[in-house]
Amino acid sequence: MPKAKKNLFERFANWATNATGSSTAFIVAFAIIIVWGITGPIFGYSDTWQLVINTGTTIVTFLMVFLIQKTQNKDSKAIHLKLNELIASHQGASNRMVDIEDLNEEELDKLHKFYEQLSDLAEKEDDILCTHSIDAANDNHNAKLELNKHSRKHKK
User: Fold this and answer.
1) So where does this one cross the membrane (predicted)?
2) Which of 2, 13, 24, 130 is deepest in the core (most CB within 10 A)?
3) Among residues 68, 76, 77, which one has the least CA distance to residue 20?
């Protein structure tokens, strides 16, 4: 798939994310704080002196929130697509897991409980390579229910 040309903001966001996440950026920020602290006695620890650092850090923080969110959204989308590809390409995987991020919290909690049950089942298996999927677990469960119904009929 050919890469689409990135717009100006996306190029800037990628550059700024890389730049602000570097060791150099941390050292520069740390140096600014040190210089600001050293200048405290010169300015008599005045309200203006405090306002300079408060305003500066507030502006940087405000802008970084949006920058970080943009980067996280992009990374999250890429990870979801990679996971969807793995699910879709694996014959034994349940395709119902693709796009589960659109489920509400209650539905996600139900799935989480189901996977806890699968984990418990897997711990009881002698074979560490034995796997379960949602569909396989449902098929096993339904088969057991049918077997139980059948055995109850024969006991009567």
Assistant:
1) 12-36, 48-68
2) 13
3) 68
DSSP state at residue 156? -
> Amino acid identity, residue 46?
S
The candidate with the shortest Cα–Cα distance to 87, out of 97, 101, 78, is 97
Segments of the chain assigned E as strands = none
Amino acid at 61: T
Burial 92-121 (b: 16+ CB within 10 A, else e): ebeeeebeeeeeeeeeeeeeeeeeeebeee
Tell me how long the chain is: 156
Tell me how far apart the terminal alpha carbons of the chain are, to the nearest angstrom: 64
For position 29, what pLDDT does the model report? 96
Minimal CA–CA distance to 94: which of 137, 130, 124?
Answer: 137
With cut-offs at 50, 70 and 90, classify the pLDDT of residue 145.
Answer: confident
Q: Which two tokens stand for residue 131?
A: 């796997």
Mean local confidence (pLDDT), 68-75? 92
pLDDT number for residue 129 = 64
Distances (CA, A) of 85 to 3, 34, 97, 112: 18, 48, 11, 21
